[in-house]
Amino acid sequence: NAGVTQTPKFRILKIGQSMTLQCTQDMNHNYMYWYRQDPGMGLKLIYYSVGAGITDKGEVPNGYNVSRSTTEDFPLRLELAAPSQTSVYFCASSYFSGTNYEQYFGPGTRLTVT
Amino acid sequence: GDSVTQMEGPVTLSEEAFLTINCTYTATGYPSLFWYVQYPGEGLQLLLKATKADDKGSNKGFEATYRKETTSFHLEKGSVQVSDSAVYFCALSDLNTGGFKTIFGAGTRLFVKA
Question: For residues A45 and A58, is the Cβ–Cβ distance under 8 A?
Fold first, then answer.
């Protein structure tokens, strides 16, 4: 299993440009998440999904959009990039069974907006 | 709302020293508690977890005990190695409400010198 994969690894955007961060998991997990990690800070939840066709906002959703058309894929869209969106973005997936719960993280995408 | 507070880093230790990273939490329900580790250039990975009061999570020589009376989940290791150098995140998730949202602390960077 590849686990959670993210592309690209690095990206530089100009202000106002758009892009999609890709995320795919091959563990058949229902739950998927997008986080951003700013320097010296913990992870902030942007959006999450509890299954195909179902998404919901997290703590910091402004400026982002998501879709979940399949169990495997959970892309994150930035429509009008702003410097405040410079961050490292992590996608994660998880299963939930009784008290068994663990999030599996991708390697991250480092995004710089200038 | 729920929150997690970790001791600020960085923490710098010599090899074979004893490690403690403090973590306290506030939660309205009965959360499960986690420690995640992030090695340079990688995503987070689960280190250990505890799902109820007085549970002890352990893995790779690391331990943490869920203390409800002090709302704490401190991470300890008796003898650190250079390879333990990483960022450590304390986190909580209320699995009774589906566990969709995990709250992460800000992270504590650990440097271990040979």
Answer: yes
Cross-chain CB nearest to A42 (options B51, B98, B104):
B104
A92 contacts in chain B (CB < 8 Å):
43-44
**A47-60: pLDDT as tens digits:** 999 899 999 999 89
Q: Which residues of chain B have pLDDT under 70?
A: 95-100
Helical spans, DSSP H, in B18-111: none
Does A40 contact B at CB distance below 8 Å? yes
Mark yes or no for CB contact A103/B46 under 8 Å: yes
What is the overall mean pLDDT for chain A? 92
Q: How far apart are CA A3 and CA B109, in angstroms?
A: 25
Q: Angle at Cα A102 formed by Cα A70 and Cα B62, nearest 5°?
A: 155
Query: Which two tokens mark A66?
Result: 């998501």
